[in-house]
Write a structure and sequence with these properties.
With 320 residues, this protein is an alpha/beta fold. It is 33% helix and 18% strand. The protein binds fe (ii) ion.
């Protein structure tokens, strides 16, 4: 894909078919779970996936991949292997899966990047999806599986309803549950969160972790609401250390140390570090995306040195 063949504003706009309403999210029945791992933004990292499988086995837990599990897995072998493993679990679509399944290919990543993200990042992102789309088009059965994935799923953990989404309460690729916005949420965002009729909202998409509690006095709901965005399962999230991160929601306290967490009405909500084999991952990444490629330009610094976010940035109200 080059500039001449990209749709106008590719990567900047949320396609119309990404949209839904908070009330629609609240409709489907909830699936019961004792311990649920929410794995957002695996980004095609097979080493992180291996660690997720270990976590699930250790706790005999349920899991949902809440989108963007594809990204760096551009070889046929990695594309098939990762999707065949992930699709055995509960999954919802992220913008990446939605665009990989779209026919004809729309030419953009569907990230809906805000103005604060540079044009270079948007261009690199569109180039990555174009490369991945070439691979996906060799695997039409997997594309069909991705196409029929839902955009949200609800669980019942203890007395709490958990709303799992990719972006925000109105769009698959919405940014209103970003760290920036949740630090001081606007009235519309608070209203949307309340309208989901859930006590916990788990999301990802923005690739930057944030966890916070909105008090019932603010939301006008009967109970406080926790919102937790895991950042990325398959990429480093912080400046001080290199690990992916997933969300754990359970009636039982986490068996190992958490990055941060809270307890709300008897349900534990934690950010859990996913320590994948960093050296093996970087070697694998460089084999597929060497210097000069769009993924290298956009992500290599973060993958090898960490993100800019600090723990203080990510740990919001009620999380310790
Ligand atoms: Fe996304």
């Amino acid at each position: 894909m080059n500039k001449a063949t990209e749709a106008p504003d590719s990567g900047r706009v949320c396609p119309l078919d990404y949209r839904y309403t908070p009330a629609a999210l609240a409709l489907p029945p909830a699936t019961a779970a004792d311990t649920l791992y929410v794995v957002g933004g695996l980004y095609g990292n097979p080493f992180a996936l291996k660690e997720v499988e270990k976590l699930l086995e250790d706790e005999n837990a349920q899991c949902i991949f809440n989108g963007d599990f594809n990204w760096f897995n551009c070889s046929d072998r990695d594309f098939v292997s990762l999707n065949e493993t992930v699709l055995k679990h509960d999954c919802i679509r992220g913008n990446v899966e939605t665009e990989l399944a779209r026919r004809p290919f729309g030419g953009g990543c569907g990230c809906g990047y805000p103005a604060s993200v540079s044009d270079n990042v948007v261009d690199w992102s569109n180039s990555i999806i174009a490369r991945l789309n070439t691979t996906a088009s060799n695997h039409q059965l997997l594309q069909a599986d991705l196409q029929v994935l839902p955009v949200s799923k609800r669980y019942q953990v203890g007395d709490s309803t958990v709303q799992v989404i990719h972006g925000d309460c109105r769009s698959l690729a919405g940014w209103s549950l970003s760290r920036e916005n949740l630090s001081n949420p606007d009235t519309g965002t608070i209203k949307d969160i309340a309208a989901c009729n859930a006590q916990i909202i788990a999301c990802t998409h923005t690739c930057e972790p944030i966890a916070t509690t909105l008090k019932s006095a603010v939301t006008g709901t009967q109970k406080d609401i926790a919102v937790i965005n895991n950042g990325a399962a398959g990429m480093p999230n912080f400046s001080h250390d290199l690990f992916g991160m997933v969300t754990r929601i359970s009636t039982r306290a986490a068996p190992t140390a958490t990055v941060y967490g809270t307890e709300l009405d008897g349900v534990y909500i934690d950010a859990i570090a996913l320590r994948y084999d960093q050296n093996a991952f970087l070697q694998w990444f460089l084999e597929h995306w060497p210097a000069g490629t769009p993924a290298y330009q956009s992500y290599f610094t973060r993958l090898s040195n960490g993100a800019k976010t600090t723990l203080t940035d990510a740990r919001g109200i009620g999380f310790t």
